[in-house]
Design a protein that fits this description.
By secondary structure, the protein is of the alpha/beta class. Helix content is 42%, strand content 12%. The protein has helices spanning 4-7, 38-49, 54-71, 98-110, 135-147, 188-196, 216-234, 255-263, 274-282, 293-306, 318-332, 349-353, 361-370, 372-393, 407-413, 433-443, 458-477, 482-496, 545-561, 599-610, 642-665, 669-681, 697-702; strands spanning 123-125, 129-130, 152-157, 160-166, 174-178, 243-247, 266-271, 288-290, 310-315, 339-340, 399-400, 447-453, 537-543, 568-572, 580-581, 615-620, 630-638. Helix 2 packs across helix 3 (54-71). The chain is globular and about 70 Å long.
């Protein structure tokens, strides 16, 4: 295929494209085990074939059936496009509206092999964060977008393009729902079947909403998390010589290596998948790698003594690493680690998200599909060992937090010692990073705001960086509280040092063989290469309502004046102030009993749609796992028009104030302070404020038998 025009012309049927099967040399999703009955297999096949006319169904039925039985899902590999998948400049897309072209730009970025974790399975990140259910849906969606006018809205049901429906120019051009399963059927077992049937999908957060910007987003969040962990737990700003131990170098977790280098500490990251390790080393995020625990500990000691900045990848299981750190403590009395966390995909622990310490990587992959029950038993045994080692280290001056990946939740389900006596259901022996580190940031209205320059021109991104820095400096000059100023300063530093911390390409360069059996006995295994920025021309920063609106207005005005050459897409991670109801992550620091309620995320989705968003998305699952969270996101296209500025002011204000108001009502004092200040600045905002119970004895007396 040679052009985007062909890509937007609908499903290629006459002739059918050649079936090239799975690509060699790229990572692929683990085999799924939906355990379908014969009748359900027929239904899955029937559902897949309804995208195709009868004259090709016999041929496709055979290969779709083979995919279903071999991989546990019908991906339709035959229809995987041969065009280079990347975010093309917006003017190259054959569309009738700029909004549609911007959406296509974002979709193709999510599927770019330099960005996506398993590109041929349409997974962007997190092991199972789907963009679409199958490739037929991709083709149809691109075709619909190319035809869409300003008086139509494309409706997406869990990857399936239901069609174009008449609407008005002031309504969203795209409305997405992913995984909206009836609550009583929102279990992992049911999900595997429903996904195999092709009727639902797990969109993670920004995978299924087409708003992923590559690793930069999670790098920034991880930088802020580790910086604030140092401030809270260690009482320091300078992390030189401090050791941060964690696991995971995949689609999201790979950011930990880069973040450790940026904050100036020693990061030791364990990873069982050699391909992921090689990928991060070749792109320059891991400075050194080794598969020797002896070498790992020796290098850690050396870096600690010299206060080196180091990101060291250990090719092995993190449980072995934690147990070795316990052994060093017990035999030498030396605590070699200061901060710790975990970023295995524990939201999906039994299908490739967590690998048990008892098995090699290949053994685990085999057992996962051949005997899921035995694999689950080993995972839970491994989780118990994992927690036991952490508990021993935590008896000393070592601080651990859950990174919102359901690690402690799954450890609890496995019978590990993570109980916090007298706590509620969302609290464990160790806090989540929201409860202790990032929760106050959300309560002040700060969260991961981002934008994408659809021209694909680095110069446009440079202009937005300058504008954002100037805007935030002005907000500080106008006067803000010290805690708010600290967040602004962290983000100004992030933007100013963006060039210094270029995020290089995720591609494994020619000559590197991730599947090689070559041992990693040396600490340095192939020199890292500088590469290029991954994916689209995007920037992320954590900002509050005032900062987001001011940055959006400045960018829109720069587009109008020609300083920025093409529209800019505003978005955010769903992991934000208002976007996600997740009792074990984003709302884990809400203690009025409403942490398990999803009104905030649903209202945010509807409210963004009513206030000018170009597209909106609402998802079941994301981060913590299927059935554990409801979250939503948006995309807003700035095109330099007064209407775009009005939409940005209205929608961004709601998108933050909704969550701050909810957090205020739950009893958070910082959210109370921020929402009161916002009401003073905007007379149209009137929020119900809570009254604290002045005397706790009133409660006890009233409830006395």
């Amino acid at each position: 295929m040679s052009s985007l025009r062909e890509l937007c012309s609908g499903l290629p049927l006459r002739p059918l494209p050649e079936n090239r099967g799975r690509w060699a040399g790229v990572p692929h999703a683990p085999v799924r085990t939906p355990d379908l009955s014969p009748a359900e297999e027929q239904l899955a096949l029937r559902n897949a074939l309804r995208y195709f006319p009868p004259d090709v169904q016999k041929l496709l039925a055979l290969e779709f059936a083979q995919e279903l039985r071999q991989f546990g899902h019908i991906y339709m590999y035959r229809f995987c496009p041969t065009i280079e998948m990347r975010a093309y400049p917006i003017e190259q897309y054959p569309c009738r509206t700029r909004a549609a072209a911007a959406i296509m730009h974002m979709i193709m970025n999510n599927l770019d092999p330099a960005v996506a974790q398993f590109p041929q399975e349409l997974v962007t990140y997190g092991g199972n964060g789907q963009v679409f259910n199958n490739w037929a849906q991709f083709w149809l969606t691109m075709s619909y977008l190319s035809k869409m006018t300003e008086e139509q809205t494309l409706v997406m049901y869990s990857g399936h393009p239901l069609g174009l429906f008449p609407s008005s120019p002031c309504t969203p051009r795209l409305i997405i729902t992913n995984g909206m399963v009836i609550p009583n059927y929102s279990s992992r077992t049911e999900y595997e079947k429903l996904f195999a049937l092709g009727v639902t999908m797990y969109g993670q957060m920004t995978a299924g909403s087409y708003c992923y910007i590559g690793p930069q987003g999670i790098v920034h969040g991880t930088v802020l998390t580790v910086l604030n962990a140092g401030r809270r737990y260690l009482g320091i700003e300078d992390l030189a010589g401090k050791v941060f131990v964690t696991s995971g170098l995949g689609g999201m977790s790979g950011a930990q290596a880069k973040a450790a280098a940026i904050v100036g500490c020693i990061g030791v990251i364990a990873e069982v998948d050699k391909a992921a390790l090689v990928k991060r080393h070749r792109q320059g995020w891991l400075m050194e790698v080794t598969d020797s625990l002896d070498r790992c500990i020796a290098r850690l000691r050396e870096a600690r003594k010299k206060k080196e900045v180091l990101s060291l990848g250990y090719h092995g299981n993190v449980v072995d690493l934690w147990e070795r750190l316990v052994h060093e403590l017990n035999t030498t009395g030396e605590l070699l680690v200061d901060l710790g966390s975990d970023q295995t995909s524990c939201h999906n622990p039994f299908n490739g998200g967590y690998y048990p310490v008892q098995l090699s990587f290949s053994e685990a992959q085999s057992l996962m599909s051949s005997n899921p029950a035995a694999f689950k038993h080993l995972v839970q045994e491994s989780l118990r060992r994992h927690v036991s080692a952490i508990n021993r280290l935590a008896q000393e001056k070592f601080f651990f937090w859950d990174y919102g990946n359901a690690f402690l939740l799954e450890a609890q389900r496995a019978g590990a010692d993570v109980e916090k006596k007298g706590a509620n259901k969302t609290e464990f022996r160790y806090p989540s990073y929201v409860q202790h580190i990032m929760g106050d940031i959300f309560s002040q209205g700060f969260g991961p705001f981002r934008w994408v320059c659809t021209s694909g021109n680095p110069q446009d991104l440079a202009v937005t960086d300058h504008l954002a820095t100037s805007v935030l400096e002005k907000v500080i000059a106008d006067g803000v509280k010290p805690s708010v100023k600290l967040q602004y300063m962290d983000n100004i530093r992030w933007i100013r040092e963006a060039a210094k911390h270029q995020l290089p390409s995720c591609h494994v360069l020619r000559g590197a063989d991730p599947a090689s059996t070559r041992p990693l006995t040396a600490a340095l295994w192939w020199p890292p290469s500088p590469g290029k920025v991954v994916g689209s021309q995007a920037r992320i920063l954590y900002s509050d309502q005032k900062g987001r609106v001011a940055v959006a207005v400045a960018i829109n005005q720069a587009i109008a004046s020609g300083k920025i050459k093409a529209p800019v897409v505003l978005s955010r991670d769903h992991h934000d102030v208002s976007g996600t109801d997740s009792p074990f992550r984003e709302t884990s620091n809400i203690y009025d009993g409403s942490a398990f309620c999803a009104d905030m995320a649903v209202q945010n989705f509807v409210g963004d749609a009513c206030r000018g968003a170009t597209w909106v998305a609402l998802h079941n699952g994301g981060g913590v796992g299927w059935g554990e969270v409801i979250n939503g996101g948006f995309g807003l296209v700035l095109d330099g028009t007064p209407e775009a500025e009005q939409k940005a002011r209205m929608m961004l204000s709601w998108d933050v104030s909704n969550g701050v108001a909810r957090r205020c009502w739950s009893g958070n004092p910082k959210a109370y302070e921020i929402i009161c200040q916002t009401m003073q600045e905007n007379s149209g905002l009137v929020v119900t404020l809570p009254h604290a119970v002045a005397d706790e004895q009133v409660l006890q007396q009233a409830l006395r038998p």
